[in-house]
Amino acid sequence: MRKQLKKKIEKKLKYYKVPLNTVDTDKLEVVSTAKKVAVIGGGIAGISAASNLAEKGFQVTLFEKEHFLGGKVGSWEFESNGEKLRAEHGFHAFFRQYYNLRDYLKKIDAFKYLIPIEDYIILLQNGDQMGFKNLDETPGLNVWDLRKEGVMNWKTFVSPKSLPFIQLLKFSEQKTFKKYDHLSFEKFAKKTGMPQKMRLVFNTFARAFFSEPDKMSMAELIKGFHFYFLSNDHGLLYDVLDDDFQYTFIDPAAKFMIDHGVQIKTSTPINELEKTDSGFTVNNEAFDYCVLCTDVKHIRPLIQNSKGLEDYSNFTKQIDQLQASDRYAVYRIWTNKFEQKDWPFFVFTDRKDCLDSVTFYHKMENESAEWSKQNKGGIFELHSYALPESLKEEEAIKKALLEEFYFYFPELKDLEIKHSYFQHRNDFPAFHTGLRKNRPEIQTEVPGLFLAGDWVKMDNPTMLMEAAYTSGSIAANKIMKEEGVQEHQLFCVPSKGILA
Ligand SMILES: Cc1cc2nc3c(=O)[nH]c(=O)nc-3n(C[C@H](O)[C@H](O)[C@H](O)COP(=O)(O)OP(=O)(O)OC[C@H]3O[C@@H](n4cnc5c(N)ncnc54)[C@H](O)[C@@H]3O)c2cc1C
Question: Does residue 350 share a domain with residue 486?
Fold first, then answer.
């Protein structure tokens, strides 16, 4: 019975992977005339756009304001107490339905660095934990299996109040956003009398989108559940890169781009551009096309300072309305102690005040493991994805994060911090209520100007890193189409839920 049901679900969900485009093999394999493209922003979206275009013979210049590539998957060196160490922007999970990003990792020979996590765990305040590795991997049946973790029980499924939960299985871009984008997760949870443990799972999930439950759009959350949990059979388990991003992602990506002729200009912030009759002027150079791949925070000043966009007020208005999420913090500490239990690389916490997750770098990344071996201490990263209003100053944030860290891992209480790296930022896109309708799309009304990044509206349900990569590739495909060049093949999970 279960086997048959699994087959039916698999068929209904199109075997969990659908093509996003059709490649016309009659078209040119590479562009026939010299075409110059400026890609602004060297995060995953910019790397994707630049790599894809360069592969097809476009002359690409990639401008990045920082001295390193990667954006939120960037990595850089710093000195502390005479030691040279590396910091990254923060822990990242590479889910198995990140089809396009994973294809790219294969292409640049970086896929070999991915290693699986052992479990997806949430630590509860009473010392218990929830783990999700033993759930059925089939969408729908995995929800049914959540009973095992006490997330819900059979009553949840028959209570009339819980009927709206069915929406999780009914994701459909247009309908879901029309019905639920105005509603926050907090309100939805109240309305449906959501069981406490289920609320906790959702809360954790909402925070992974850098949003407090009272601001998080329920439609975005349904989309997230669809993309991560209910559209594919990969389970909630994912992979991580086994060493610093510089070695496992950025170096291979940069080599691939350079081999394909991309000019990479780091430490080159682009503060304005000019739309001209034939294309764009960026950094005093003429280009035929421009792909803007900055983060959500920096796109606004760039567009406000730019010239020649006066006739495109829909576009400039949309950019004006973009919002970044709440402030977040990433605090990495190099210590003289280890945790007692054998935890997976990364755990979520049922946050008391500000701590949302802990990463055990000494277990995960080779270079960190080496430091740990030599120094007989652990490397931990503490995240707060949405800092409370009350926490504003660096020292207060660090103190609050550490207090909560010791609450969950009391054996570490008297540890000595040998080195630390602290980031307090607000450059993540807001997935708050009501924002979707004004979000700009990849193709803008400005001829030759495209957008890419995890904040851009797409008609596929990818999110976060996969959204950044996919949007960069779609932007590149659109330019290829204009030039009569064969597009790159892209994939996605099905766009509709099991019951949609
Ligand atoms: C702490 C943290 C944890 C995360 N964990 C996960 C995870 O586990 N899984 C997951 O899928 N996603 C995760 N994400 C999200 C993921 O990092 C992003 O979705 C993705 O990296 C965004 O890529 P991007 O290219 O769109 O933007 P960014 O990485 O922000 O890149 C934008 C780039 O543009 C550059 N730039 C900005 N302005 C200018 C300018 N004027 N001129 C030139 N360059 C400019 C910036 O310096 C930056 O390099 C996490 C994010 C954070 C912050």
Answer: no
Taking residue 478's Cβ as centre, other Cβ atoms within 10 Å add up to 16
Q: Kindly give the number of the ligand 1 atom that is closest to the alpha carbon of 44.
A: 25
Q: Which of 104, 241, 294, 302 to mutate to test the pocket of ligand 1 (most atoms within 8 A of CB)?
A: 294
Q: Note whether 317 and 453 are same-domain residues.
A: yes
Q: In ligand 1, which atom is closest to the CA atom of 468?
A: 26
User: 245 and 99 in contact (C-beta within 8 Å)?
Assistant: no
> Per the confidence metrics, is the pTM higher than 0.85?
yes
Chain segment 217-274, per-residue pLDDT in tens: 999 999 999 999 999 999 888 999 999 999 999 999 999 999 999 999 999 999 999 9
**How far, in Å, is the centroid of ligand 1 from the Cα of 73?**
6
Domain that holds residue 361: 80-98+112-117+238-243+325-425
Q: Is residue 429 helix, strand or coil? A: strand
Least confident range from 203-212, 267-276, 413-422: namely 203-212
Confidence (pLDDT) at 325: 93
Least confident of 44-48, 90-94, 191-195, 326-330: 191-195
302 alpha-carbon distance from chain centroid = 23
More confidently predicted of 241 and 161: 241
Same domain for 444 and 314: yes
pLDDT in tens, 52-65: 999 999 999 999 99
* Same domain (yes/no): 217, 354: no
Note whether 37 and 289 are within 8 A (CB). Answer: yes
List own/partner pairs for 313-317 with CB under 8 A and 24 or more apart.
314/445, 315/440, 315/444, 315/445, 315/446, 315/449, 317/438
- Taking the CA of residue 452 as reference, the ligand 1 atom at the shortest distance is 26
Could you read off the pLDDT of 117-134 as tens digits, one per residue? 989 899 999 999 988 888
Among the candidates 230, 258, 282, a domain finishes at 230
Domain boundary among 425, 460, 480: 425
Co-location of 11 and 88 in the same domain: no
Q: How many domains does the chain have?
A: 3
Distance 293 CA to ligand 1 centre (A): 9
- Closest ligand 1 atom to Cα of 385: 1
pLDDT value at position 132? 86
Contact 428 CB / ligand 1 (< 6 Å): yes
H or E stretch at 406: helix 394-408
Give me ligand 1 centre to Cα 380, in Å.
21
